[in-house]
Amino acid sequence: MHTVVVGTSGVTASDVLAVARGGARIELSAEAVAALAAAREIVDALAAKPDPVYGVSTGFGALATRHISPELRAQLQRNIVRSHAAGMGPRVEREVVRALMFLRLKTVCSGHTGVRPEVAQTMADVLNAGITPVVHEYGSLGCSGDLAPLSHCALTLMGEGEAEGPDGRVRPAGELLAEHGIRPVELREKEGLALLNGTDGMLGMLVMALADLDTLYKSADVTAALTLEALLGSDKVLAPELHAIRPHPGQGASAANMLAVLKGSGLTGHHQDDAPRVQDAYSVRCAPQVAGAGRDTMAHARLVADRELASAVDNPVVLPGGTSQAFGSGGGRVESNGNFHGAPVAYVLDFLAIAAADLGSIAERRTDRLLDKNRSHGLPPFLADDAGVDSGLMIAQYTQAALVSELKRLAVPASADSIPSSAMQEDHVSMGWSAARKLRTAVDNLTRVIAIELYAATRAIELREGLTPAPATQAVIDAVRAAGVAGPGPDRFLAPDLAAADAFVRGGELVAAVEKVTGPLQ
Reaction catalysed by this chain (predicted)? Predict the structure, then answer.
């Protein structure tokens, strides 16, 4: 099994995917263990002093004015976990919780949190055992970190609350830890707070959304090319020299992908004699511009994600040396900061939801054009076998339209909202967790939208009798039919076909079928 080694300098997106989705094992580097121990020495030194230090010897949030005596500090750390584990609603997906825990471990191992090495090792042990804390949909405002979700994870480390075992059953966390020989942690100064205070949930969901969208944008280039082909459109608009004079990288990549798919097509450019076309409709002609803008949005989001993956997000943080009044051994100090604010991540999560909505919108317009006999250039109404007796794909487009309408609602920014909390101490929040949750839904729906365009476009191409599609197109048709998606014919129970098309796109099989002919898409 693949192993991910966590050091002090952050992790990569591929590490997150390997742990969250691939079940990779985690090891702590010797460097990380040393950094954890050094930071802990600073916290212990500060804890022994009479001066109040936030997170070490004070309350939290609006209660930070109270100095906590040494005999109450362990209880303080337990209490913050228990009281903050206040999530409600449906359970969050297993992969999200694993990403959340792994990214918190990443920050802990930076040596800036003051958590003891044994606590970090317990976090790794829980992940390696396949134990997944029960985390709920609601409870994070994306500021002071994803507090409730991370608290539910910390509760499992303490042997409290509920968790899902590797067999998928939800049971008391203490039982699961005992079965795997893991001792519950006894939290000390600063540790409870350090386990809760980060942007890890929203970042994990961003990383996974980017991976999914990478496949979806390639898939959308393919379905756009297939629709252009089915409508007997012109591939001249995909010429590299046209895109070089408006040099957005994503636009050029999308156009190149479409051109690669259409290479060798016997359908492109066959304008009908009774309705000559000088140029195709926007939804066909401007496909690279729209998909390309989304690709460039993804590039910006990746930049933000990579910076965040290299970050240590906590409050307060442990730093060596400096001028703070809160000194520990060797001049180290603990400093309050605002790095837990999720704005950088929240903005790009919302930006991606906007791009996803527009990609779905243009794909739906192409599908509708395929089904409308007045605009499809010779295709039967709704691609039906016997129009009137058969309805063809009429209601498949209804489903697609409903999905696109939902995508547009999901594009409304969460990060534009803020509700003050903690008695106005935390008076501006990012809502980044909410932005991440709605982006996951948007990605899910976008997959279905592209699957419906694929279903319509492949059927339409097969109805162009006497014309030979591009080799890559034929490879798609052969693969999708082998996957159980039916071709033209009389009406049939449509939902299973759409579900099979969705699985074909979702699993990356559409891109794989094309790349066997074209080589890697951009």
Answer: L-histidine = trans-urocanate + NH4(+)
Between CA 442 and CA 439 the distance in angstroms is: 5
Active-site annotation holder among 54, 217, 282, 347: 54
Whole-number Å distance between alpha carbons of 185 and 194: 14
Domain range list for the chain: 3-198, 206-308+339-518
- What are the CA-CA distances from residue 221 to residues 61, 267, 268, 316 (Å)? 48, 17, 16, 46
DSSP secondary structure of 37-54: HHHHHHHHHHHTSSS--T
- Given a contact cutoff of 8 angstroms between Cβ atoms, the answer to whether 160 and 174 are in contact is yes
Range with the lowest mean pLDDT among 293-302, 319-328, 382-391? 319-328
Q: Please state, as a whole number, how many other Cβ atoms lie within 10 Å of the Cβ of residue 182.
A: 21
**Catalytic: 54?**
yes
Give me the pLDDT at residue 375, please.
Answer: 93
Give the CATH class of 3-198. Answer: mainly alpha
Q: Are the CB atoms for 82 and 155 separated by under 8 Å?
A: yes
H, E, C per residue of 262-309: HCCCCCCCCCCCCCCCCCCCHHHHCHHHHHHHHHHHHHHHHHHHHHHH
Domain 3-198 and domain 206-308+339-518 have a common topology: no
Second-level CATH architecture of 206-308+339-518: Up-down Bundle (1.20)
169 contacts: CB under 8 Å, gap ≥ 6? none
Count other Cβ atoms within 10 Å, centred on residue 89: 9
Residues 32, 13: Cα–Cα separation, whole Å: 19
**Res. 423: pLDDT tops 90:** no
Collapsed DSSP state (helix, strand, coil) of residue 140? coil
